[in-house]
Design goal:
Blueprint (H helix, E strand, L loop, with lengths): L12 H7 L5 H13 L5 H7 L5 H12 L13 H6 L2 H7 L2 E6 L2 E6 L5 H11 L2 E6 L2 H12 L2 H10 L14 E3 H7 L3 H15 L4 E6 L3 E8 L2 E9 L3 H11 L11 E9 L2 E12 L2 E10 L14 H8 L1
Parallel strand pairs: 2-3, 4-8
Antiparallel strand pairs: 1-2, 5-6, 5-10, 6-7, 8-9, 9-10
């Protein structure tokens, strides 16, 4: 006899799948036996692995089990206002897509109703109430690329046009508009640095790490305290890329063994930035870290930090 309800009073996923006629009783019994042998796996995952159901069927069943609305993202157009409010980095980290405003809440499409920690993190980060709806995880990933664009893809397109024979511009840049650089000088290495900084600003990154590896140069952005890979650059372009950044920071491009510091002042994505640049020798070449500082932001007040009202009062006390 298969139990039909969880301890929380919800019907079990197997029972819901039976009700929706996505599986047979024999399939359910077989899947439960497999789950006993692999206790760490969810029943739905086992059924998908055995091709008893597909992702759409599983998500539909989860929506009914948890009382969420199922959304077909191929027929849904998110509101631009909420796309602008929720950062792309957050969507990629938690695999979510914002859909619309509903009263004082934002409707967020998620792929896993059991990931309660992520749901609470999203609510805290946005400092607003959220309503969850469900869609298949792969559909959400496609929607993020569709409605936010693929920043990695943009950088990759630029990388394909780079030529290791090009020399970086040998001039010190004190204050410059990146958009003007792109118009006046079509050198691909300059375009790549331009797009890398623009992409980092748009994704609210605090740092850009350029890290030489044995077979490539890895670019990573620090977003919300977490380093995320932005792109990999071919090893043959390492010298040109590092030299370009050091020239912009008024650093000595001939010195490759001693640590150096510099600063780049520029305007990117409509923001006046001070970029603090540090270089240090490593096994596979110089590593560079760029700290992005928005001049207009300055120090935040306590009210701007996103406290809930009760927590703010306690903190002030």
């Amino acid at each position: 006899m298969v139990e039909s309800r969880t301890s929380g009073g919800r019907k079990r996923i197997g029972e819901v799948l039976l009700e929706l006629q996505f599986i047979t009783k024999d399939q359910l019994v077989a899947a439960l036996k497999l789950q006993k042998q692999n206790g760490h796996k969810r029943l739905g995952e086992i059924m998908m692995h055995k091709k008893m159901i597909n992702q759409t069927q599983l998500t539909t069943a989860l929506a009914r089990q948890f009382g969420y609305q199922y959304v077909d993202l191929t027929k849904t157009q998110p509101e631009q206002s909420v796309i602008d409010k929720v950062p792309q980095a957050m969507c990629e980290e938690y695999n979510i897509i914002p859909l619309k405003k509903s009263g004082n809440s934002i409707v967020i499409c998620i792929g896993d109703p059991l990931d309660l920690v992520s749901i609470e993190n999203i609510r805290f980060a946005l400092n607003t109430n959220i309503q969850c709806v469900l869609a298949p995880p792969e559909d959400i990933k496609r929607a993020i690329k569709t409605f936010y664009g693929d920043e990695k893809g943009k950088l990759s397109d630029t990388i394909l046009g780079l030529d290791s024979s090009e020399d970086p511009v040998k001039s010190t840049i004190d204050k410059v508009d990146l958009n003007k650089i792109a118009e006046e000088d079509d050198a691909p290495i300059i375009k790549f640095v331009h797009q890398m900084i623009e992409s980092a600003v748009q994704q609210r990154a605090s740092d850009i790490h350029v890290e030489p590896m044995e077979d490539r140069v890895r670019a990573r952005f620090r977003i919300d305290g977490i380093l995320r890979i932005a792109n990999d650059v071919p090893k043959r372009l390492q010298g040109s890329l590092l030299s370009r950044i050091k020239i912009m920071a008024d650093m000595d491009i001939a010195e490759k063994r001693k640590p150096q510091d510099g600063i780049i002042r520029l305007k990117a994505a409509g923001q006046d930035l001070d970029i603090r640049v540090s270089s240090i020798a490593s096994v596979h070449g110089e590593g560079i870290v760029m700290r992005l500082l928005d001049k207009q932001t300055g120090l935040k007040t306590l009210e701007d930090l996103g406290f809930f009202a009760n927590d703010y009062k306690k903190f002030r006390r």
